[in-house]
Write a structure and sequence with these properties.
single chain; alpha/beta; OB fold (Dihydrolipoamide Acetyltransferase, E2P); Rossmann fold; Ribonucleotide Reductase Protein R1, domain 1; six-stranded mixed sheet; five-stranded mixed barrel; 8 helices
Length: about 300
C-alpha cells in the first residue's frame, strides 16, 4: 500500500476532502480510531475514485469546545484565532470570553475583530469591549461590508504566513470577511462541496482557504455557534485563563480561593475598586459554577 501526504481542507461526517500536491480527493477514515479534523496533516491511500485516511500526523495545536454531552473540534494545526464580534447582532460577551479562554487553553494566539463599526450601535458595543482591551486582548475594528479595501489593508499583514481560524456567532461577518480577503473563495468552497457531493442537506463544518498561491497563508471559516462548552477546563484552574482575574488571584488570602465568597479575596476587592469589570466577575462566577457541576 502506497501512502501519500495530504491536508484535510473540508469535512462532513465521515467524509473528508484531502488536498494532495496536485488535487483534492474525497476520503474516508480507516475505522473509528482515526479521528481527524480540518487542518490535520494525514497519510492517505488511494481507494477506487477516492481514498482512505490511514493516519493523522502529530498536531501542533487543536482548538475544540466541550460540554457535558460531547466535544466538538474546530480545527487542527492553526496558529491563531480571530474572534469576530459585531455591533449587530448584539455582542454576546459570554461567547467571546469562552472563545478566548479556549484559545488560551489550547496555546493559540487570539485577537478580536469588531465588525460593522459604521452602525449606530457601534459605540455601545465598543464600550463593552473596553475591559478586553485593558487586559491586553488585541481588538481590531473594521466595517467589512462598508469599506472592504480598508479591511484588506488591515487584515492581510496580520494573517500573513499563518493559518488563522475565524470564530464567531452567526451573522457577525465571517463569510463577508472570507469574500473580502479572497474574491474567488466561492471557487474553493465549490471544489470542496463537489468533492463531498454536497446538496441542500449537506454543509461542511470548517473549511480551509488559501490566501496565496504559495500556500503560506490560510484562513479557516467555521460555522456560527450559539454555545461554547469549556468542560475541558477544571473549575480550580479557571482563574488562570482570565487575565484580569489572574492578575489579582495570587494576592488572595487562601491559595485555593474560588473568588466567590471567601474572606480577603483580592479578586473581589479589585472588582470593588473598578480594576476588574463587574461583567467579567459575573462571567467568572457563572463559568466557575458551570465547571463545578458534576460531569457525567
Amino acid at each position: 500500500m502506497t501512502l501519500s501526504a495530504g491536508l484535510v481542507v473540508g469535512a462532513h461526517g465521515r467524509h473528508f476532502v484531502v488536498e494532495a500536491s496536485d488535487r483534492r480527493v474525497l476520503c474516508h477514515r480507516r475505522g473509528k480510531k482515526v479521528d481527524c479534523v480540518v487542518g490535520d496533516r494525514v497519510q492517505w491511500a488511494a481507494a477506487g475514485d477516492g481514498g482512505v485516511i490511514e493516519a493523522v500526523l502529530p498536531r501542533r495545536s487543536l482548538l475544540w469546545r466541550q460540554d457535558r454531552w460531547r466535544s466538538k473540534s474546530f480545527a487542527a494545526n492553526i496558529d491563531a484565532a480571530l474572534i469576530i464580534v459585531a455591533a449587530d447582532p448584539p455582542l454576546a460577551e459570554g461567547l467571546l470570553a469562552r472563545a478566548l479562554i479556549a484559545a488560551a487553553h489550547a496555546g493559540i494566539a487570539a485577537q478580536v475583530l469588531f465588525n460593522k463599526t459604521d452602525l449606530p450601535t457601534a459605540d455601545a458595543a465598543r464600550s463593552r469591549l473596553e475591559p478586553y482591551r485593558r487586559m491586553g486582548v488585541p481588538v481590531l475594528e473594521a466595517s467589512l461590508g462598508h469599506d472592504a479595501a480598508a479591511a484588506r489593508a488591515l487584515l492581510r499583514p496580520l494573517l500573513a504566513r499563518r493559518a488563522t481560524l475565524l470564530l464567531g456567532a452567526s451573522g457577525v461577518g465571517k463569510s463577508t470577511l472570507i469574500n473580502v480577503l479572497l474574491p474567488d473563495a466561492a471557487v474553493q468552497v465549490g471544489e470542496i462541496s463537489r468533492s463531498l457531493n454536497a446538496g441542500r442537506h449537506t454543509t461542511t463544518t470548517t473549511s480551509w482557504y488559501w490566501l496565496d498561491d504559495a500556500r503560506t497563508t490560510a484562513v479557516l471559516d467555521s460555522p456560527g455557534f450559539r454555545e461554547f462548552g469549556l468542560q475541558q477546563i477544571e473549575a480550580a484552574d479557571l482563574a488562570h485563563w482570565l487575565p484580569d482575574v489572574a492578575a489579582h488571584a495570587a494576592n488572595c488570602r487562601f491559595v485555593n480561593c474560588t473568588h466567590r465568597d471567601e474572606p480577603d479575596c483580592a479578586v473581589r476587592a479589585a472588582a470593588e475598586r473598578g480594576e476588574i469589570a463587574a461583567s467579567r466577575l459575573r462571567l467568572y462566577a457563572q463559568l466557575h459554577a458551570e465547571l463545578s457541576r458534576p460531569h457525567y
